[in-house]
């Protein structure tokens, strides 16, 4: 069975926690321990791990901006490559430790991943991808004035900087990912949605949504299932309202109808739902959306949302 596991930001850093190395390490270790307990790393599974980088690349951007008088400021695509490196290192280290503690002999590889996008993508003219830390409106407006980037409220959780998020067209390294998978290697790839590049491999100053990139990578490597791990245990309709309810098993046409009715916030759940739809409509067998805390229950059908053709 081939699976892609897309780790959300809370797999590395929960809301309100610091950006220090230890916080990322401890959260990653806990996430992999839960995945191991749920059987994700057994020898009958060929696994790709992907991850987000929204808070981290936002931190890198602000750090570069604040020191631009002394040091060169790198573009967003280079900062995505930077976060792919150090987040990938943490993930590989904690995954190797998890496997060793369980006596499991599997190799792990972290792959710098580029993803092709169109330089004419309209999303580049309409920034929508949140990056960086959650802020109050006042803090966000001040940072927006300083950086020149727009800010938006993110699903009632606070304000964040937003950047262009073009549609992923092709994962340039997907054949390498598939070859490693077939050799039994657990691959960490498409970090932060991948480094966005044009057809000539030059960078695009943007950030790709990692769930959309994960769905595309899953189709390109022939994955059977896509797991999207996020902050909530399931997908909800009427989320945050007295009549909210989780979706358990849902057919893709029903999920598309809920999306059209506006049940999912653009800054949080909507990209995950759209990724699930694209994966299943592209030939994937199922998508599971849940949190790392409930992944074992989701495997038993007791939690999470399962999207089916």
Care to describe what's here?
The chain is an alpha/beta fold. The protein is 37% helix and 21% strand. The protein has helices spanning 21-37, 54-66, 76-101, 137-147, 174-182, 210-220, 252-260, 269-281, 295-299, and strands at 2-7, 46-51, 108-110, 114-116, 129-135, 151-153, 159-163, 170-171, 186-188, 195-197, 225-229, 235-237, 245-247, 249-251, 286-290, 305-308. Strand 6 and strand 7 form a beta hairpin. Helix 1 packs across helix 3, helix 2 (54-66) packs across helix 3 and helix 6 packs parallel to helix 8 (269-281). The chain is globular.
Total E-strand runs: 16
Number of helices: 9
CATH class: Alpha Beta
Number of domains: 1
The CATH fourth-level homologous superfamily: Acetylglutamate kinase-like
Low-confidence region ranges = none
Shape: globular
Spell the H/E element sequence. Answer: EHEHHEEEHEEEHEEHEEEEHHEHE
Radius of gyration: 18 Å
Main β-sheet: number of strands, strand sense, barrel status?
8 strands, mixed
Terminal residue distance: 18 Å
Instruction: Give the class from helix and strand content and strand pairing.
Output: alpha/beta
Indicate the percent of residues in helices. 25-40%
Which range does the strand content fall in? Answer: 15-25%
Q: What's the rounded overall pLDDT mean?
A: 94
Describe the strand arrangement of the main beta sheet, using strand numbers.
3-9-2-1-11-15-16-14
The CATH architecture name reads 3-Layer(aba) Sandwich
CATH topology: Carbamate kinase
């Amino acid at each position: 069975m081939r699976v892609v596991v897309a780790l959300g930001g809370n797999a590395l850093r929960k809301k309100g926690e610091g950006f220090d190395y230890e916080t990322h390490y401890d959260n990653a270790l806990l996430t992999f321990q839960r995945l191991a307990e749920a059987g994700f790393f057994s020898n009958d599974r060929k696994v790709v791990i992907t991850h987000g980088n929204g808070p981290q690349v936002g931190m890198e951007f602000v750090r570069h901006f604040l020191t631009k008088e002394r040091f060169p400021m790198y573009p967003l695509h280079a900062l995505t490559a930077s976060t792919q490196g150090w987040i990938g290192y943490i993930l590989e280290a904690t995954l190797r430790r998890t496997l060793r503690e369980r006596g499991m002999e599997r190799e792990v590889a972290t792959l710098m991943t580029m993803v092709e996008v169109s330089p004419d993508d309209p999303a580049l003219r309409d920034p929508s991808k949140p990056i960086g830390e959650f802020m109050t409106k006042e803090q966000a407006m001040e940072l927006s004035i300083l950086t020149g980037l727009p800010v938006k409220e993110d699903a009632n959780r606070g304000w964040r900087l937003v950047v262009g998020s073009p549609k992923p067209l092709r994962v340039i390294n997907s054949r390498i990912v598939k070859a490693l998978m077939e050799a039994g290697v657990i691959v960490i790839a498409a970090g932060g949605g991948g480094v966005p590049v044009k057809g000539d491999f030059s960078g695009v100053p943007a950030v790709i949504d990692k769930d959309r990139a994960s769905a595309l990578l899953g189709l390109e490597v022939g994955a059977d299932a896509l797991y999207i791990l996020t902050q909530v245990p399931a997908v909800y309709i009427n989320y945050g309202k007295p009549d909210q309810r989780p979706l358990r098993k849902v057919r893709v046409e029903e999920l598309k109808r809920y999306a059209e009715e506006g049940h999912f916030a653009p800054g949080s759940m909507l990209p995950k739902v759209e990724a699930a739809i694209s994966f299943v409509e592209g030939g994937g067998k199922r998508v599971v959306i849940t949190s790392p805390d409930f992944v074992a229950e989701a495997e038993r059908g007791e939690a999470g949302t399962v999207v089916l053709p």
